[in-house]
Batch of 2 targets.
Target 1
Amino acid sequence: MLLELEKDSFASGQIGSKLWLCRELEKTLPSTTPLTYWVLGGWIGMLPFLIRSREVLPVKSIRSFDLDGVASEKAEIINNLWVWQEWQFKSFRADCNELDFNDGGPFYSDAPDVIINTSTEHMPNQKWFENIPEGRWVVLQNTDMKIDDHVNKVTSVEQLKEKFPLSQTHYSGELYFDYGNETSFKRFMLIGQK
Ligand SMILES: C[S@@+](CC[C@H](N)C(=O)[O-])C[C@H]1O[C@@H](n2cnc3c(N)ncnc32)[C@H](O)[C@@H]1O
C-alpha cells in the first residue's frame, strides 16, 4: 500500500523539515506573483502537497523530478488535485543533473523561478547546482543524520553555504530534532538566489 511503503516520508523529521521550509519561504518570496517551482529529488511529492495545502504561496505550477519512477508515480497520486487542474503539478522520472533550467518545454512547464532540493545529502554529484542559472531562487536542505544513503551530508549551515555558494542569502538556519537519543539530528537550510 502507498502509505505503508513510504512511511519514512511521514516521519517527524521529514514533515517538520518541510513545514519549516514552507514557513520560511512564505516569508521570503513575493506574495503576489504566481511562480513556477521545480523540486529536485522530489520523492513522493510531500513538499508540493504541503506548499499547495497551506494556500499561502501563489503557485503557477510545480514540477517534481526523481530518479525513482515509482516514487514519481506516487507523487502524482498524492498531488492529484493539481495534476487534474491543467497539470499544475506533474512529476517526472529524471536525473536532476541532466535538467536544463532554461527550458521547461519538455516538462510542460515554464523555466523554473524557484529550484528546491531537500535531498542534497543523497546526491554525490553537484552538476545540477552548477547548471542553475545565476539569479534563480534556490532552496536547499541537508542534514547531519548518519545513514548510509547520505553520501553528501554536511554538519553545519556554514558547510552548506560553502558547498552551494549563493550570490544572495535571504535565509539560513538549522532545525534540531531532539529525540533524546542518538537518532537526534540537525537539518540545515538555505534560501537565496544563485
Ligand atoms: C530519500 S529521498 C528524500 C529525502 C529528503 N530528506 C526529502 O524528503 O527531501 C531522496 C530522493 O532523492 C532521489 N535522487 C537521488 N539522486 C537523484 C538525482 N540525481 N536526480 C533525481 N533524484 C535523485 C532519490 O531517488 C530519492 O527519492
Target 2
Amino acid sequence: MSPTRKPDVCQPTGTAELPMLDVYMPMMKSAAIVSAARMGLFEALAGGALEADELAGRLAADAQGTRTLADFLVALGYLTKSATRYANTDSTQRWFTRAGQIDYTPGALWTHEAWSMMGDLSSAVVAGTPQRSLWDTMRDKPHLGPLFSRYMQAFAQDLGPDLIAHVPVTDRHARLLDLGGSHGLHSIRFCRTYERLNAVIVDMPSALTDTATTVANEGLSDRIRLHPANLLDLDWVQPCDIVLYLSVGHNQHEVDNRRVLGEIARMMRPGGLLVIHDYLAEDPLNAFHAAFRLTLLYETGTRTYSEEEYRGWLREAGFSAVSRIDLNPLEKGSLLLAYR
Ligand SMILES: C[S@@+](CC[C@H](N)C(=O)[O-])C[C@H]1O[C@@H](n2cnc3c(N)ncnc32)[C@H](O)[C@@H]1O
C-alpha cells in the first residue's frame, strides 16, 4: 500500500499566516484520533461503512457527539463520508484496526497517557532531566507498564520479519539473551525460527506482567525464561551466544551503555553476535528524530546516539566486524550487528 497523504490541517484556509494553528490544530488532531481509538470507533467501522446513528449505537455514545467527532476525522483524512455513511480509509483500516496487518491502537492509548505527562515538558527542559523517570512513574501507576509493553509489541510485530531476515543465526548459536525484551515477541520469534535456541528475557518487572502468559500460549515456557531486573544492576550476566539490545540503548545514559556493552562482550564466547536496534542520530536531526529526543528527555533523561558513538563503545568493549543495516522504511530504524 502506498503511503496516504493526509490533509495538512495546520495550514490556514485563508491567506493570513496564523501560527496559532500550529498549536491548536495538532492538539485537536491528536485528541480526535486518540478519542476515536479509545472509544473503539475505528474498530467499529472495520466491518464496513455505518450511518452516524448506527456508529453511535455500536459505541454506546451520543449520535451528535459521534457525528461531530467523525466529521473532523473525515477532514483529517482518517475517515471517508459518502452521503451520510462513514467508513475507515485504507490507511486507518491498516494501522488502527485488528483487520490490518498490525494494529497500533495501543500507541494511541499510550498517547492518551503521554498527554498529561507532556503538559509538564518545560520542567524537564529547565532541569535538563525528568522530574520523575518513566520507570518510577510506572511503579506508581501499575496500568502504565503493561500498556507500554503492548505499544512496544505493535512495533515488534512490524520489526520481527526484518530481524529474522537480517540476523545471521548459525548452528553455533544456542543461548539468546534479550535485554529489555519486554513483551517477549522477539525471543519467541527467534526460538520459533531456530529450534536449538533457548532465551532469557531481562526487563523491569513492570514490563513483564503479561510476558509469561504470552510465552506459555506459544508453548515455549521450557525454552524462554524471564529475568525481572534492572539491567544496569548487571545480575543477568551469564554466558550467551546472541544478545538482543533492541530499542534499549536510547533509554540509557552513555556511561551505562558502555558498561552494559562491556559486560556483554566479557561473557560472550568468540563468534557470538550482538544485535542492536535503534534510531541512529544524524546531523541535522530530522523532525521526527528531534521530537523523539524531546520525549526521551522528558521520560528517561537520555537521548538517541549516532552510529559513530555506538561504534566507539563497541570497539572499546572488544567487538569487531560491525555492520549497519538501515531498515525499510527508514522510520523502522537501523540495526548494528557486531561480532565478538
Ligand atoms: C523501547 S522498549 C523496547 C522493547 C523491546 N526490546 C522491543 O524492541 O520491542 C525498551 C525496553 O527496555 C526496558 N528497559 C529500559 N531500561 C531498562 C533497565 N535499566 N533495566 C531493564 N529494562 C530496561 C523497558 O522496560 C522496555 O521494555
